[in-house]
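Reproducibility note. Readers wishing to regenerate the assembly model reported in the main text can use the exact inputs given here. Chain order matters: entities are listed in the order in which they were concatenated for prediction.
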Amino acid sequence: MCQLLGMNCNTPTDIVFSFEGFRLRGGLTDRHADGFGIGFFENKGVRMFHDDKPSASSPVADLVKTYQIKSTNVIAHIRKATQGGVGLANTHPFIREMWGEYWLFAHNGHLGGFQPEEGKYYRPVGSTDSERAFCFMLEQLRNRFEHKPPVGKLFAEVATLTAQIRHHGLFNFMLSNGDILFAHASTLLHYIIRQAPFGEAHLIDNDVAVDFAAVTTPNDRVAVIATQPLTANETWTQLAVNELVAFRDGDIILRDCPDNPRYLSQQEGLAIARAVGVAA
Amino acid sequence: MCQLLGMNCNTPTDIVFSFEGFRLRGGLTDRHADGFGIGFFENKGVRMFHDDKPSASSPVADLVKTYQIKSTNVIAHIRKATQGGVGLANTHPFIREMWGEYWLFAHNGHLGGFQPEEGKYYRPVGSTDSERAFCFMLEQLRNRFEHKPPVGKLFAEVATLTAQIRHHGLFNFMLSNGDILFAHASTLLHYIIRQAPFGEAHLIDNDVAVDFAAVTTPNDRVAVIATQPLTANETWTQLAVNELVAFRDGDIILRDCPDNPRYLSQQEGLAIARAVGVAA
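Running the prediction on these inputs yields the following structure tokens for the assembly.
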């Protein structure tokens, strides 16, 4: 199964520490070796890096590491190809413009039977179920709203569409316009919100630690969202099955959690993925 | 004034040699130091690199040099900000999806008074006249054609739209969907088609030469399009004022040239740019 990484903060922050552990899962500590992608919002603009090489050994990923781009919203994805061949057109995150803003989307899961009819505004370029789902969501949002609605209305509509799409399979995703970051779990997704007092964190996938107190100011707030926790000595919070959360400025502003929330273990999450054919 | 570079070929080719001379015009041998961008088509996918640093010293441009990405269609742009501030959202090439394909666009010129009404399908994210023109072109094409028309019809419509937009100022541009590359000159644009027998070429901006015979096969055909010729010992062909050309597989397949073609000298081109406020 693919893996997702996202970041949403109240001040531009570099994602190098988290990305360093995450990228090693692409070909070194795990088996997601069919390319990777990362998109950084910088004000209204987006800087995208895609590669069909494994993230662990990609020179593009090396650049991301050394360049230390600061951003308030980031979405990254490492890919184990299940639907659609290996190739740049099938590499997440996907990007489209809606309401005069760029939107980024990355998905981990499987929506094999999901074949929505051709959109008027948005059509997939590649052959993944993921890009079909992204285009469908934007198509419905754009059909419903000529201009960007207030955040509460937007969240409600995203929740409705998410519920509709997840009937077709597994739909762990992140979606962002550079302001809000939506995160939804069908199986496994975790987040952590780091704020003062900042401490030290140790990566699981690499012998690297960072003292956040030394690289932040007291007002910084940073949410990191990932398929699996990236650090060993911090407490990550798991999203419930079918939970949708909206982050803004490094904090949760809206959530849509089932009445009787259910949390999968890593083993259960992987077993479900395997059952629908997206095993790692 | 900004500078444009494009490549269209019948076999995936790396653009490193041309890009090497071109990028030095961003901050070193010329003054286009407000960022740069380059987009590579790889089959249906696009790999984009944007930076707001001058291309001559950008680590992203260093990556483009060392990574030697092979592509059949490339559009690059180095920017001297005239309309819209320096920032990623204003950095060419711009990208949108239309008819299930990605489209890249880069512009050099000035369309100050061009303020088309808000599009249904395509809206600018940044604040440049260039992105407004790109969105307007796609909006009109999409309004006219629900699906991609045959190339002749497409060319005719692009020619009509180009004529409409260039009344608003200077409109040197390149536009590509990864198959066809459209190039239009209001002032300065040159191209060269390299094919067997290949020879050696020397860059103008750098003491570098390449023997194309050593890095090509006899069937390769590569069109390179640039604001100014990049090599000193080859013959580049200039586009006439208001000429539109469509390249495919490294060759010209359609052109729309005025009856009495006029060709500007570099001095005249720069004088016109200066007169409308986009002097280098």
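We highlight two features of this model. DSSP finds six helices and 15 strands in chain A. Chain A has one domain: 3-276.
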